[in-house]
Amino acid sequence: YFAGARVFAELNTFDSLTLPRRGIALHASAEGRLGLKGEDRLSTTWRGAGAAAIPFDHSRRLVLLTRASLEGIVGDHPFYLAPTLGATQLRAYHLQQLAGEAAFVHSSDLRLDVIRIGSVIPGTIGVSLGLDHGRVFGPSITGSTWHLNYGGGLWWSIVDQLGICASYFRGLDGGSRFTLEVGPLFANPGF
């Protein structure tokens, strides 16, 4: 058991929560916790993250969405509180596959609206190409390996409120993952 507190600040100017075509998002937070029940563990987690959606044309059909995040932990802590990478940050890896005292990740998606539908069920169908890189740091981490993965997908945004995406990502060090997602597709800035 732990007792703790968290403070954070966020700014999000994305023009759409499901399919952002322009805007930025920023996040900063710190969380402190103290172990209870005889555990005298005190630790602090800090995090900073940012994202930007940058359109390349007037009609906003070609958009670059880029996200970066840095997270760390200080103090005596159990392994399950360590910063992790995988799944949503490094998309060719499994959830929480990499862990350390600090974690950095950068992801970019180049998204193209192929078809915009205005009748029956309005929405947008498109393709995206993505590139992620990141690593974890800490005294128990040997080597200086940066993990890089790339991939792409097909997506459909229904009424610009609900999204469906099928994507495949492959890591340069061998991992690969196919995902099918439902919900906000590109609006998650990573925090």
Describe the 3D structure.
0% of the residues lie in helices and 61% in strands. It has strands at residues 2-12, 23-35, 42-55, 62-75, 84-85, 98-99, 102-117, 123-137, 147-158, 162-171, 176-183. A nine-stranded antiparallel beta sheet has the order 1-2-3-4-7-8-9-10-11, with no helix packed on it. Strands 5-6 form a two-stranded antiparallel ribbon. The chain starts with a strand and ends in an 8-residue tail after the last strand. The model has no long low-confidence stretch (mean pLDDT 90).
Low-confidence stretches: none
Report the order of strands and helices. EEEEEEEEEEE
| Biggest β-sheet description | 9 strands, antiparallel
Give the N-to-C terminal Cα separation: 24 Å
Computed structural class: mainly beta
Mean pLDDT: 90
What is the molecular shape?
globular
Strand order of the largest sheet: 1-2-3-4-7-8-9-10-11
Radius of gyration (Å): 19 Å
Strand content: over 45%
Q: How many beta-strand runs?
A: 11
Count of helical segments? Answer: 0
Query: What portion of residues is helical?
Result: under 10%
